[in-house]
């Protein structure tokens, strides 16, 4: 019995020798400018397998074995410099002061469907086609040359027109100008008279028929009209145009683009 006890004590002492000592690493994460604690900031050790969140007071703590570690803090809108700390059997206090940084701006990028790559039915009107066929008419009248689309003038002034795609009323057709929806928020209608000069700066126009994948909340049940205008990437230059139409319609326009500085 005594031999069993001695063997047990020997194994216990031997196993304790393989257990590394644990030390407490703690601190507070604050805003460098105001000194306010950063709540729920993520404090990461090395490659991120060990991490914790700061509490309401911005405090955190770890129990780490002896060794050298790199601690970093991740918090949205803040930049924190990683710190390397050496743990050697004693408690370590390490505070972080993070600097607030400006978030990158969100860009709305206007894009169009690509032939044989985007799985939707669409027609693209090229700049040359728009220039040759528009002839002073409303921009919507160009859609009559595309399958599934029908545009009509309502007998009023310039821009007083309506568009149907696959028989669906204009209120259920999404219209975007450079990626920005222009449908009325209440009834989905598009007042083309507000976009009378749009035809003079349109680079290309694409009509997507039927539902398509869109990240925007637009009424695109019947389809989507995507209009892209001439941007700052155009070369420096100017243009002068004169158009004539029925009922003594005369239109003179002058355009100038400074190009990129």
Shape annotation: elongated
Poorly predicted ranges: 13-19, 105-110
Taking all Cα atoms into account, the compactness measure Rg is 33 Å
Classify the helix fraction into a percent range.
under 10%
Distance between the termini: 93 Å
SS field, number of helical segments:
2
Can you summarize the main beta sheet? 5 strands, mixed
Query: How do the helices and strands follow one another from N- to C-terminus?
Result: HEEEEEEEEEEHEEEEEEEE
Total strands: 18
Tell me the β content: 35-45%
- Structural class comes to mainly beta
SSE topology sketch:
Layout: H1 2-16, E1 22-31, E2 42-45, E3 50-53, E4 59-65, E5 67-74, E6 78-79, E7 83-87, E8 92-93, E9 96-100, E10 121-125, H2 127-133, E11 149-153, E12 161-165, E13 173-177, E14 180-181, E15 202-209, E16 223-229, E17 237-245, E18 249-257
Outline the structure in words.
The protein has two helices and 18 strands. With 261 residues, it is mainly beta. A hairpin with a 4-residue loop joins strand 2 (42-45) and strand 3. 18% of the residues are buried. The protein is elongated. The model is unreliable at 13-19 and 105-110 (pLDDT under 50). Helix content is 8%, strand content 39%. Strands 1, 4, 6, 8 and 9 form a five-stranded mixed beta sheet that branches. Strands 10-15-16-13-14 form a five-stranded mixed beta sheet. It has a four-stranded antiparallel beta sheet with strand order 3-2-5-7, with no helix packed on it.
